[in-house]
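Minutes, methods subgroup
Present: GH (chair), OT, SY

1. OT presented the first of two proteins processed in the latest run. Sequence and structure tokens recorded below as shown on screen.
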Amino acid sequence: MRELERYYRVLEIEPGATLEEVNQAYKDLVFVWHPDRIPKDNLRLQKKAQEKLQAINEARDKLRSFNGKHQTIYNYPPTQQKKSSPKTSHPQTSQPPKQSSDLSGKDFSRANLSNKDLSGRNLSYANLSGADLSDTFMHKVNLRGANLSEANLFRANLLLADLREANLRSANLIGADLSGADLRGADLTGARIRSGERLLVKLIGANLAGAIMPDGEIHS
């Protein structure tokens, strides 16, 4: 139990935290300590970030394994698990398969993917129109040519994501982090990125060459 308490401390959460709280703490800390967010020439901080990331990953994996003995990844009560049947009113596309990283061309339209970890997944040319991707962690995700029209990307982490030729028409990008993302040729017509005159999307280092901006102008 002392080892488990150490993992909780690493993730800066209280012992006995739910799996949802573990996942959220993990995403928050990765966002803070990811080496890609630290100047490459600062070797001291780069080393510290890598050590932090290793500890954070280990803690998340251990606590997931521990909690997985008592609940599913979606925190359904045990009674629901026993009563579940192969036939369900929810589409199978509502959650991406956990084992496969290649989800290219899949249909996740209107799916609830809020708070999920899709980092590194290949979702090129996938249909995510109208999907709820709020607070989703999508570091280095491949969304080239994907349909994200009307998707909710509120506070989504799209750090270094590949969004070339992606359809982001009328998507909600308020609070999203697109730092370092490749948005060449993407269509952001009507996308929500501002509140009044205030830009509420992080675009530090993003490549917007040829992208259609929310006002219809093509970025040069």
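2. SY then presented the second protein from the same run.
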Amino acid sequence: MIKIWKVNMIMKRLKFCIVVLSILIINLSFSLTSLAQSKQALENFENQLKPLTDSMINAKIDNQRYAANEKFLILFEDILSYPKTFSYSFEQLNNISILTPSDKRFRIYTWYVVNDFGEYENFGFVQSENKDEKEMQVYRLHDRSDEIIMPEGAKLDDSIWFGAVYYDIITTKNEDITYYTLLGWDGKDIYSQRKVIEPLSIKSSNGKPVFGASVFYREKDRKRCIFEYSPNATFLLKYDNQYTETIDRKKIKRKGKQQYINDTIRERNYMIVYDSLQSLFDGFDNLPQYNVGAYQYNGFRFEKGKWRRITGVVPRNLPNKEKDKINADPTVDDKRTNVKGEKGRLF
């Protein structure tokens, strides 16, 4: 009788394990199916968006380009409200720059549309998590570049934005505070183009973006750096590991006499490297359409929560003047293609 009781107990436990295992398998299959359906849905959305992005760039007249852009804005804003899109690559949208910082606090999407007069208008979204409500928040960026008085000193947000297509994002930390810095390009118009160093912060409560900050050393009133130059010129602005050289004047004794020698101190650090601008013609310094790169490099190095301006950058691995400089500038090739923010691409 005891043996029979033990067998019955073992059989009951075995049946229980089989039931639990079956439930787990069913749940796993359901989860995988849901995931596959979700991925398929995102791919379907992307297939609808791709022709619109092509028309935004390649349509023959600006009415068609802007019509495609309006449709894209409506559809894309709706799609970005789904949390799974935060990690989706959108690989087919080559005309959209997509940047995510290393801590994955947010995602920023930017692009442009050109009218028939050669004037560029920038568009974008910031996608971040609203920690209070634990949901995905999407902020549409409104380009108000032409309306901003003294843009280098203005603190802005999604409703008033100094528009640009961002091609790099730099994440830095100081005393547990994380800083985000964007590098961007604005085609502006037929007379000039611009590049910008744009500090960005995200409000912890609702994920709202704030553009511009007093993070430039000894320049409290500066919220961003804007470089404006000829539409036919190249201008280097990139985050890179580069050398700086300073001259240290030392006093030594030689044959009983005191002498001074110049000692060159060379350091290598990550920094934002930029080309100095100069006018092609004397007396035209205030006309940006004549500004070109001077092939003299300066930089900004991040120190204790500030971007400190430095001189004496001696680039060792930047392209040379004659041959490769054009390839270092992400705007030199056709500006209407390959603006997606991935390494190895134009931007």
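Chair's summary of item 2: Residues 1-10, 12-36, 320-347 have pLDDT under 50 and may be disordered.
Next meeting: continue with the remaining queue.
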